[in-house]
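#struct-pred

JT: dropping the chains for the assembly here, can someone run the whole complex?
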Amino acid sequence: MPDATTERPYHHGNLRTALLDAAERSLREHGADRLALRDLAREIGVSHAAPRRHFPDRQALLDALAEAGFARLDAVLRSALAGADDDFAARVRAAAVVYARFATENAALLELMYTSKHRAGATRIVAAAEAPMRLLAEVITEGQAQGALEPGDPERIGIILFATLQGIASLVNGNFVPPDRLDGLVETAVEQFLRGARPAS
Amino acid sequence: MPDATTERPYHHGNLRTALLDAAERSLREHGADRLALRDLAREIGVSHAAPRRHFPDRQALLDALAEAGFARLDAVLRSALAGADDDFAARVRAAAVVYARFATENAALLELMYTSKHRAGATRIVAAAEAPMRLLAEVITEGQAQGALEPGDPERIGIILFATLQGIASLVNGNFVPPDRLDGLVETAVEQFLRGARPAS
DNA sequence: CCTACTATGTTGCTCATGACAACATTTGCC
DNA sequence: GGCAAATGTTGTCATGAGCAACATAGTAGG
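RK: done, full complex below.
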């Protein structure tokens, strides 16, 4: 019987979600290294072993966070593109700005997302990453159709754009470049990209 | 008195270096997460508390590894550039290829190097990173002098090149892109960079 | 030489965490 | 209603980080 005052039913209801939420906050505040399952359990008010019912081990939770991160990134990008002009340059700019913002506002999460190395079972993460990458590739394809871009494998070109943005964000997140230079760098990168990948006149 | 057979003098001689070496191997084999000071101590044959005399805590060791990593990267880049042609495009290509190789052959180390977030005292790492960045900027400056590049802050342009390469390596290291595409991507990225940053004709 | 003094290692703790097992309570389905 | 699967709980173990007190080895003056 639940205690009327503390209101703690035996079953939490949706511990999994609560864990992911708490984990994301912890990630943001303290980084992945200091994220402890037991902390989350305490914070939520369940026993220290409860998380195990939803995530076999710590890494599984981190993987789930990364996976969700890519989904969110995809959503954010899609939303930005939906609101953007039809002009190819404008669309690339919009995507780039949004990506950069997402990447710097969720630095620790980004790290998690791209740090799948050394785990065999990162298949889900890689799959989740395909959505935003395909999205970029689609934008590229549009650009090629508009004649703004040289022909060629759109995926390859998209990957390079993706990589450039990720690299810039990574340099900012690592304090190698002051944050106030972010926008300028992204802008220059996009300009160069547009110039470098346009058809030979 | 040292035991003649086990040959273990009370003082190791240069534990610090031994620790860094062992740490780098462990990093390469198991990743930063599973790097344990006690493991290193065991492997080297000293007591579990010995590392503390050289690194106040685990993070300090990781920081030292990252710092050394940037030094090595700088050396590798310098060496590649020293052996490269005077031609600007050739120099950029050489640097890019070497960077990409270093980054993918030392994936876990690279991660450490760029993951200084969330630590206040990462000053040394950031400082160490300046060497290779300056090097890139110098190459850019040369290119501008040769007229192969548009004028403008060489640092900014160098950062973008740097970021692009880092991003590509990161995507490969994270298994988001198959390793055999690395060379092609780097090449394309360099071509686009050279086209995108050259002076408006 | 011999005596501090400092650097470097060692032993022995404490504490936290992840992982696991055995048990308890719900929930839902037949 | 009753049984099986979910979901939580308590208890335990192994491991590692960090700290303190102690031991040993170089080293620098006197």
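JT: nice. The CA atoms of residues 100 and 169 of chain A lie 6 Å apart. Chain A touches chain B at residues 30-31, 33, 107-108, 111, 114-118, 122, 126, 129, 133, 156-157, 159-160, 162-168, 170-171, 173-177, 181, 184-185, 188-189, 191-197 (CB under 8 Å).
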